Structures are given as structure tokens and as C-alpha cells.
Amino acid sequence: MNQVNHQTAFLQSFEKDKNILLKTAQDQIFTDLAQRLVEIAIHKYSIYFNPLGLVDDTFQRILDYRFDNTNELVGIYENLCVAYRYKYGDNQLEIIWDGKSHEEKYKEEWSNTFDRWVNDLTENPSVIKGILQLTVFNDKNRELTFVRNAVKGLINDYFEIKILKRNGVKRVVLKEKKLRKAS
């Protein structure tokens, strides 16, 4: 009984850890940011693959998409969240003087960073194609693990990290840069 009380007190002492509040804020705005990810991918698709704006069957399907299939983006979103918490991962709460709650501040900061990162990531045509394959062109009867893993790999390369999931916990490992010998 005493151990249960001690464990509960231990967990309660971390409720105000910045990373716990940040993770909660990130989870709460998943739907909005997943939709934003698809919007940016569609916009970049039109820039890179359809600059004349010609409407063929493929582009019409993209234009008709209604953002109802963002479940395939959960793992990609989680990896971006983990990368953010890793890069900005101090666990100390700060005093906020403008009247916002920590949760509001973290949502705003995360949203801004997310937009910046997604704009950078979607400069890579493979990321654009992967996001559209997982959402717009997902027929629900195909296995898309390869596409998901490819996009996650591109994200890992972008941040020069590797995100591993073991026992339900994601952790970050720095990737070793490969040095090339001059021939």
C-alpha cells in the first residue's frame, strides 16, 4: 500500500514537467496540423509537379480530397513531435508574462515550428509523394508500411537523428555522419 502511494506521488511530481505539457499540447492539435501537412504537400505538389495547373485525373483527385484520412500520418506526426521535444527538450517550466497558459504557448510554438519544418521537408519531392500516397491516394486496401517508413527515414535524415520505438517509448539517437574519403 505504501509503495502504491509513493508511486502515485512520484508520478504527480512530474505532471508539471514541460515535456509532459508539451506532449499533451502536441497531441491535442494533431488533427489540425495533420491537415496542414496535407495542405502544404498539395501546394508543393502543384508547384513541383503541376506548375501549369493542368487538371487531369490525378490532380482532380488531389483537388477533391477532403482531409478525412489522416490516420496514416500519426507515426510521421509523432516523429516530428519527438524531434521537437528532443531539440527543445529542457524540462523546466518558464514564467509566462503575457497571460497565456503553458499549454497555449506550447501549442503556438509547436505549430509555428511544425509549419517551418514541413515547408522545409516538402522541398523533397519524395516527401510530397509519400504524404499524398498516405492520404489522398490511399485506397485503404494496400499496405503502406514501406511508404510510412520511407517518409520517417527522410525525416530522420533531415534532423540527422534516428527515432527508435522500443516498448512503446520513442527515443532519439544521434546519427553518425559518414565521412567520405577523397579519392
Key features of this structure:
183 residues; single chain; 8 helices; 7% strand; 2 strands; mainly alpha; globular
Largest sheet: 2 strands, antiparallel
Percentage of residues assigned to helices? 55-70%
Output the number of helix runs.
8
- Which band does the percent of strand residues land in? 5-15%
Uncertain runs: 1-13
- N- to C-terminal distance: 68 Å
**Element pattern in H and E:** HHHHHHHHEE
> Which value, in Å, is the CA radius of gyration?
20 Å
Describe this entry's structure for a reader:
The chain is mainly α. The chain has one domain. Strand 1 and strand 2 form a beta hairpin. The longest helix is centred in the N-terminal third of the chain and has 20 residues.
Topology of helices and strands:
Elements: H1 2-12, H2 18-28, H3 30-49, H4 57-64, H5 74-87, H6 102-121, H7 125-134, H8 145-159, E1 161-166, E2 169-174
Antiparallel strand pairs: 1-2
What is the structure about, briefly put?
This protein is mainly alpha-helical.
